[in-house]
Design brief:
The structure holds two protein chains of two kinds.
Chain A lengths: L4 E3 L2 E3 L3 E4 L6 H11 L3 E5 L23 E5 L6 H15 L3 E4 L12 H13 L3 E6 L3 H10 L5 E2 L13 H10 L5 E3 L5 H10 L3 E4 L1 H4 L4 H21 L21
Parallel strand pairs in A: 3-4, 3-10, 4-5, 6-7, 7-8, 9-10
Antiparallel strand pairs in A: 1-2
Helix pairs in contact in A: 1-8, 2-3, 3-4, 4-5, 6-8
Chain B lengths: L1 H6 L3 H9 L3 H9 L5 H8 L7 H16 L2 E5 L1 E3 L26 H13 L4 E5 L4 H4 L1 H14 L2 E5 L5 H9 L2 E5 L7 H7 L8 H5 L1 H7 L4 E5 L7 H18 L4 E5 L18 H14 L4 E4 L5 H7 L6 E3 L27 H10 L3 E3 L10
Parallel strand pairs in B: 1-9, 1-10, 2-3, 3-4, 4-5, 5-6, 6-7, 7-8, 8-9
The chains are: A alpha/beta, B alpha/beta.
Catalytic activity (chain A): [ThiS sulfur-carrier protein]-C-terminal-Gly-aminoethanethioate + 2-iminoacetate + 1-deoxy-D-xylulose 5-phosphate = [ThiS sulfur-carrier protein]-C-terminal Gly-Gly + 2-[(2R,5Z)-2-carboxy-4-methylthiazol-5(2H)-ylidene]ethyl phosphate + 2 H2O + H(+)
EC number (chain A): 2.8.1.10
Family (chain A): Belongs to the ThiG family.
């Protein structure tokens, strides 16, 4: 059976989601995204220009049909703004999918858990397929799940930091508890980080900065594609653990022999 | 809902896959940091038997890490032996000609004092299934009395509706135990031919109703031996895994009632040895580090003394399984035969001698609003 990922009504063959920012130019972005084989890319609503000539516009470079768009609410600071931005995105991009991100803090861009939960509850009721970007907080992720989001997107490390899975212990709990897909977002700075996330059992990863700002974005995008596949295959196959040797001095089960 | 998930599985297929387990599968399961249902299957398989000592050691480590060196003590208080069900294995079955009794409020108070006098601050209330004697009106009348004397109330009664569980919670109930007996649909029907209990699906969906009502703790289990204990344990583990994910704010416990061969009674379909029960307990612990594992006085003193260190977190002591058994009518008929008849004080000493702390109270009803 083919190993696919289902989120809401869509089925994905690739478990690598990508961003569209920071690439420098749209041609480079397009090549890198093709090399990554990604099928879902997030687009900041604030970046979508409608006045530009069609061939230059960001959207023209996103292989229509094969790549699905995931508009995000980057830039909003509270639930009210997020709901408004979501409605704009639905109009502009003709999709009810939404990456919900609310960061009131412009320095570290930390997601606001309270506003995110409140916005998620409203957006689900408005018929959106909500994928919230959030802290690697297991309770928050369960609360978002109960609110009806389609997947959770906890961060691996501060966004743009390329630090990898510094939240690994929390991510393990989230993956273990979650009844919906878990997409590790933010902080993945190298293909090895992406592979690690997949080995832990994450359903997908979202990579942007590490791909867009690499010396050769196309080559790195391809490397991420391999890494995600390798990590996923290892998870499905079942990783061997570390050998444990029992060193009991007095056998615990000797009473059964008497 | 658990039922759609459950219906995707086939008993025979799962049973066969358990028996196909190899030593290599067991080694792999033992080596893992976080174990899956497939690992649990490997650990309860016959192929894991040679690894028992290693499993026991790992189980001990994992249990101490989570629970410390503590063992909870508990005692069941039977409110009634009235029952409208026929269950082939139960002393209270409708077709058994026994004197029936339901405690009155006055009798209940006497029993509560007797249980309290043994040192307990929590109590497990047990009944058969007989709506007219021990339905919600009876619980509404009796629970306030229990709450006056105990910090924590657990209930092991007939499956109820979600609204009932929500009401029971407001009456001070903290824990509800409901055992599926067997996850084998066909054999379940054979063993429960009459009464409300004959409805397999209503019982199977019961932990969902308890969870939705927001109960703090939910207990699950199978009557081991009624069918193949390995397959039943696998389905119990699957059930627990589903419940944990869905009702993530509840705690869970698993019990290991074992059907013993005895003259005149129902003979188990699969006889579970002591060694196998230890294997099962350790497999549970290795599969789930957080679940409470409980053992009753059905087991022998020697077995219980040794199992304390191997993964169990709570044991009953001084149990009477007849309504009025502690003070009102000590001679009446028991639901099942008790093997370990030692007083709770003696059991507490056994626990201390093993280097563990006996815990008599682990909840305060002031915390439950």
């Amino acid at each position: 059976m083919k190993d696919t990922l289902k989120i809401a009504d869509k089925i994905f063959s690739s478990r690598l989601f990508a961003g569209t920012g920071k690439f420098g130019d749209h041609q480079m972005m397009e090549k890198a995204l093709l090399a990554s084989e990604t099928e879902l890319v997030t687009v900041a609503l604030k970046r979508v220009e409608h006045s530009q000539p069609a061939e230059d516009a960001l959207l023209a470079h996103l292989a229509p049909g094969r790549i699905h768009l995931l508009p995000n609410t980057s830039g909003v600071r509270n639930a009210r703004e997020a709901v408004f931005a979501a409605q704009l995105a639905r109009e502009a991009l003709q999709t009810n999918w939404l990456k919900l991100e609310i960061h009131p803090d412009p320095k570290y861009l930390m997601p606001d858990p309270i506003e995110t939960l409140a916005a998620a509850e409203q957006l689900v009721k408005l018929g959106f397929v909500v994928l919230p970007y959030c802290h690697a907080d297991p309770v928050l992720c369960k609360r978002l799940e109960e609110a009806g989001v389609a997947a959770v997107m906890p961060l691996g490390a501060p966004i743009g930091s390329n630090k990898g899975l510094v939240m690994e212990e929390m991510l393990r709990i989230i993956i273990d508890q979650s009844a919906i897909p878990v997409v590790i977002d933010a902080g993945i700075g190298a293909p090895s980080h992406a592979a690690r996330a997949m080995e832990l059992g994450a359903d997908a990863v979202l990579v942007n900065t590490a791909m867009a700002t690499a010396g050769d974005p196309v080559a790195i995008a391809e490397a991420f594609n391999w890494a995600v596949k390798a990590g996923r295959q290892a998870f499905v196959a079942g990783l061997p653990g570390q050998q444990v040797t029992a060193a009991a001095t007095s056998p615990l089960t000797a009473f059964l022999d008497l | 809902m658990f039922i759609p998930l459950f219906n995707q599985y086939d008993w025979i297929k799962e049973l066969e896959s358990i028996y196909r387990t190899t030593a290599e599968d067991v080694r792999r399961a033992l080596a893992r940091r976080q174990r899956t249902l497939a690992d649990f299957k490997a650990l309860i398989a016959p192929a894991a038997a040679p690894f028992l000592e290693q499993m026991a050691w790992l189980s001990q480590q994992a249990t101490q890490k989570r629970f410390g060196k503590t063992i909870q003590l508990f005692a069941p208080l039977y409110l009634s032996n009235e029952c409208q069900n026929i269950c082939t294995y139960c002393g209270f079955s409708l077709d058994n000609q026994i004197p029936r009794k339901t405690l009155t409020a006055t009798e209940l108070i006497q029993e509560l004092f007797a249980v309290k006098a043994m040192g307990y601050q929590h109590v497990l209330l047990v009944t058969g299934e007989a709506q007219q004697w021990v339905g919600m009106p009876y619980f509404r009348q009796m629970l306030p009395l229990v709450r006056q004397h105990f910090q924590h109330i657990a209930l092991e009664v007939q499956p109820l509706d979600e609204t009932d569980y929500a009401e029971l919670r407001s009456l001070g109930v903290n824990t509800v135990l409901v055992y599926q007996e067997t996850y084998h649909r066909g054999d379940y029907r054979k063993h429960h031919p009459k009464g409300k209990k004959a409805n397999f699906d209503y019982r199977l969906a019961c932990p969902d109703r308890i969870g939705r009502a927001g109960m703090h703790k939910i207990g699950v289990g199978a009557l081991l031996g009624l069918d193949d204990w390995r397959a039943d344990s696998f389905f119990t583990a699957m059930h627990l895994q589903y419940l944990e994910k869905t009702y993530w704010q509840s705690k869970f416990s698993v019990s290991f009632p074992r059907l013993r061969p005895h003259a005149g009674g129902l003979q188990p379909k699969s006889v579970m040895t002591d060694r196998e029960l230890v294997q099962l307990i350790c497999a549970w612990r290795l599969f789930n580090n957080e679940v409470e594992l409980s053992i009753s006085t059905r087991e022998s003193p020697r077995f219980r003394d040794n199992i304390i260190k191997l993964g169990i977190t709570s044991i009953s002591a001084g149990s009477k399984t007849n309504p009025g058994g502690y003070a009102v009518a000590p001679q009446s008929l028991e639901q099942f035969e008790i093997d370990d008849t030692r007083d709770p004080a003696v059991i507490a000493q056994v626990i201390r001698d093993a280097g563990y702390e006996p815990v008599w109270k682990d909840w305060d009803h002031a915390l439950q609003l």
